[in-house]
Amino acid sequence: MHSSKVTVYNTGRRSLLFLLLQCTQFAFSGKMKIVEEPNTFGLNNPLSGQVNRLQPKVPPSPVSGPAHLHSLSGKCFSYIESTYKYEFCPFHNITQHEQTFRWNAYSGILGIWQEWEIVNNTFLAMWMREGDSCGSKSRQTKVILSCGVSSKLAQVSEPSTCVYSLTFETPLVCHPHSLLVYPTLSEKLQKEWDEAEQARYEELITEQGYNNLLKDIFEEAGFLKTQRVTEKKDASNPTKKFESLEKCNEGFQKQKEEIERLQALLTQHNIPHEKQPAEKPQSPVNVAPAMVSQNSHLRGDTGLLSDLV
Ligand SMILES: *[C@@H]1O[C@H](CO)[C@@H](O)[C@H](O)[C@H]1NC(C)=O
Ligand SMILES: *[C@@H]1O[C@H](CO)[C@@H](O)[C@H](O)[C@H]1NC(C)=O
């Protein structure tokens, strides 16, 4: 008479829990004591081979950087150090799995592929961020690329709390030019870089301004995560007349904000933009000289005074 239908939930844990509850219900109907605890029913156990508990917070960034490294996408490399196994999937993620048979062995995401670290115009490391929470922050991992005879993870450390550092050795980065940024750029971005280089040479921009220009180029190429908020384009015809004073004020405010934004951008790039002689030299205001009439006495009662004497 118990034709129980087992619902398959999206997480194995819940379907297991459901099953268990169903079973225990039959076994000790009414006598069951439910103990509240974060039971994972061994799903984290490396032996069970299940990692579906790991829920990435963000999708990985698109594959980018040197073309000869793109073949690493879809592959995974593991490395065991002491009681942990690390699994690095280039351009995807990095995870950590405690090697123990305990029922609640730890398994977690140390980062999802986000962006490159570029130093001295060379790809240096892959940043995997937005991993599992660590207090108010997220775990993150820097995977440093280094030349080696075969592709493998080599070292792991935690330079600061929940920030991990691993070295990935591969023959793909042994050629001295294999990690240069410039050759990976489009013609347009290479031209922009050339111009920035020229401007720096001619001292038209500061070192900081030059670095900001490069950062913009790297962001546009998709090597760095963009911090800027992408603005939605206003589709309405900009030459359209305003229907009301309110609309006009609104439009004015928008333009003002846009100008401020652009000025901030120029300042950021150290491009001088101060309004040249914006204000004309102030023409002296013609203050009407106080009319002190010498004849004011005419209206007084001077006559009386003289009369008194
Ligand atoms: C990590 O990336 C690999 C390779 O793409 C993928 O199979 C796996 O599901 C990912 N794991 C997580 C937790 O995102
Ligand atoms: C930067 O790269 C150039 C050329 O690859 C090299 O000559 C120079 O020593 C590097 N500088 C630093 C600080 O690494």
UniProtKB/TrEMBL annotation:
Keywords: Disulfide bond, Signal. PROSITE patterns: DMAP1_BIND (PS51912), MRH (PS51914). The keyword Ion transport does not apply. Residues 74-176 form the MRH domain. Residues 181-283 form the DMAP1-binding domain. Pfam families: PRKCSH (PF07915). Residues 1-29 form the signal peptide. SUPFAM superfamilies: Mannose 6-phosphate receptor domain. GO terms for cellular component: Golgi apparatus. InterPro entries: DMAP1-bd, Gtb1-like, Man6P_isomerase_rcpt-bd_dom_sf, MRH_dom, OS9-like_dom. It comes from the Eukaryota. PANTHER family: N-ACETYLGLUCOSAMINE-1-PHOSPHOTRANSFERASE SUBUNIT GAMMA, N-LINKED OLIGOSACCHARIDE PROCESSING. This is N-acetylglucosamine-1-phosphotransferase subunit gamma. It comes from Albula goreensis. The lineage of its organism: Eukaryota, Metazoa, Chordata, Craniata, Vertebrata.
